Sequence to fold (163 residues):
Amino acid sequence: MRDVFTMHSFERQASVQTLAQGLAEYYDAYPELAKGRGMSVAAQEFFRCHDAAHVVFGCGNTLDDETVVKIASLFGTTAGFGVLKGYRLHESLEIYKTLRLRDVLRSLGQSAFLIPRTIIRCLRQRSRWPWEGFEEHLRVPLCDIRKEYGIRVAHDKVSNRGA
Fold:
């Protein structure tokens, strides 16, 4: 679990940032993600929705966070299993090639905990987060979005006791 003092605002359950502000903070924290990416239109759309899921589900870009976002995208968004098409895009596969084996193995160990917890949290949501068409939420505070959809963020120590 990460140190609470190194968390970004969008990672906190009660963040009052709007979704647009959370996305801006996410791209500021990970500037390599916001450079137009030189990707296909399909990949740009996939990663736009994927990045919004990072912010809504309160995840940075560690491998553990990526695990949570993938599982939450499957079970907690309207994309469902259709989201897997985006992970098969050549741009996604290029990202996987940059991962270090040691980091992947450590993350696999954590997955035994993260995957069931994330599925349980997603099944407890009031409704699924809209994978596409979420623009109407850009001016809505993250805490309100999370309350409306019943989303619990991945790492907020104060609000994440238990599953």
About this structure: The radius of gyration is 15 Å. The chain has a mean pLDDT of 88. The chain has one domain: 4-149.
